[in-house]
């Protein structure tokens, strides 16, 4: 497994504080002016692709390489009582790739998926999924890490719980499966899962999720919980080759349900009660 580091010296760490409430007015303007890719000293599949003129997503193709650390912290500020999240630059992380992870969803039709979910519900009851909200700094603005499959489906890192595991342990297992080495079995100690910031529900197997239990008279078929994930100061991200890791600005997600779906598009509002500290290294 190869990894490379962007050139440059570390500067003294400084702290800038911002809130999501004051973020949306000017968040995208510095990003959309960049139109050409920036190549690292790596083969083409290790290209870090800067945003196109019609998009401000940052794509790491099959684990394109950067260096460094990202650490989220949803501690309470002792002086103000506000919830605080510390984020670090994307350029301070290491990224690499690993063999593709098989997925039941890749080749199944919608009818096959609905039948599979129904069979699982009959056998195990309501499906419970846990997803991670991981923020980084890019172009001086908060970005959310997303996984993309089939070049069009955006997902948060996470997935379905097993029947015998807790939400925290299940999320740690899923994060290790999608963002860590295959032979690393110490996932319980790798991820620091913070508080749950939102819960969504589905009343049927292929319905749109709602941030409340729908008044349909049916028992919920699926529950989806979002957790803030706090990372250590140094970590490698190792992404399966059949997935792309993206860093998407919060302003692009806000109310953009058509592209990202209701859950991801609603994350900026869920984060509005947090103050965000951008830490430069």
Automatic annotation (TrEMBL):
One Gene Ontology CC term in the entry: mRNA cleavage factor complex
Cross-referenced SUPFAM superfamilies: Nudix (SSF55811)
Subcellular location: Nucleus
Protein's UniProt keywords contain Transcription regulation: no
Pfam assignment, any one: NUDIX_2
One MF term in the entry's GO annotations: mRNA binding
Principal location class: nucleus
GO BP term, example: mRNA 3'-end processing
Keywords noted in UniProt: mRNA processing, Nucleus, RNA-binding
Entry's transmembrane regions: none
InterPro entries, per database record: Cleav_polyA_spec_factor_su5, NUDIX_hydrolase-like_dom_sf
Biological role stated in the UniProt entry: Component of the cleavage factor Im (CFIm) complex that plays a key role in pre-mRNA 3'-processing. Involved in association with CPSF6 or CPSF7 in pre-MRNA 3'-end poly(A) site cleavage and poly(A) addition. NUDT21/CPSF5 binds to cleavage and polyadenylation RNA substrates. The homodimer mediates simultaneous sequence-specific recognition of two 5'-UGUA-3' elements within the pre-mRNA. Binds to, but does not hydrolyze mono- and di-adenosine nucleotides. May have a role in mRNA export.
Family affiliation: Belongs to the Nudix hydrolase family. CPSF5 subfamily.
Name used for this protein in its record: Pre-mRNA cleavage factor Im 25 kDa subunit
């Amino acid at each position: 497994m190869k990894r490379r580091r962007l050139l440059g010296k570390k500067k003294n760490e400084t702290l800038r504080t911002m809130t999501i409430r004051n973020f949306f007015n000017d968040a995208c303007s510095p990003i959309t002016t960049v139109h050409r890719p920036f190549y690292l000293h790596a083969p083409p599949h290790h290209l870090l692709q800067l945003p196109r003129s019609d998009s401000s997503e940052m794509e790491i193709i099959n684990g394109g390489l950067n260096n460094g650390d990202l650490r989220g912290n949803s501690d309470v500020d002792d002086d103000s009582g506000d919830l605080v999240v510390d984020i670090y630059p994307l350029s301070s992380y290491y990224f690499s790739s690993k063999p593709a992870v098989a997925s039941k969803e890749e080749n199944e039709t919608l009818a096959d998926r609905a039948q599979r979910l129904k069979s699982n519900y009959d056998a195990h009851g309501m499906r419970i999924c846990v997803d991670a909200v991981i923020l980084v700094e890019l172009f001086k603005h908060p970005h959310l890490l997303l996984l993309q499959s089939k070049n069009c489906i955006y997902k948060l890192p996470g997935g379905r719980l097993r029947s015998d595991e807790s939400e925290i342990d299940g999320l740690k297992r899923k994060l290790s499966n999608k963002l860590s080495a295959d032979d690393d079995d110490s996932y319980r100690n790798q991820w620091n899962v913070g508080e749950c910031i939102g819960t969504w529900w589905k009343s049927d197997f292929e319905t749109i999720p709602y941030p409340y239990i729908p008044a349909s008279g049916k028992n919920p078929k699926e529950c989806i919980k979002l957790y803030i994930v706090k990372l250590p100061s140094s970590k490698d991200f190792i992404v399966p080759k059949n997935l792309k890791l993206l860093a998407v600005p919060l302003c692009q997600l806000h109310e953009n349900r058509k592209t990202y779906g209701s859950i991801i598009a609603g994350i900026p509002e869920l984060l509005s009660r947090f103050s965000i500290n951008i830490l430069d290294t």
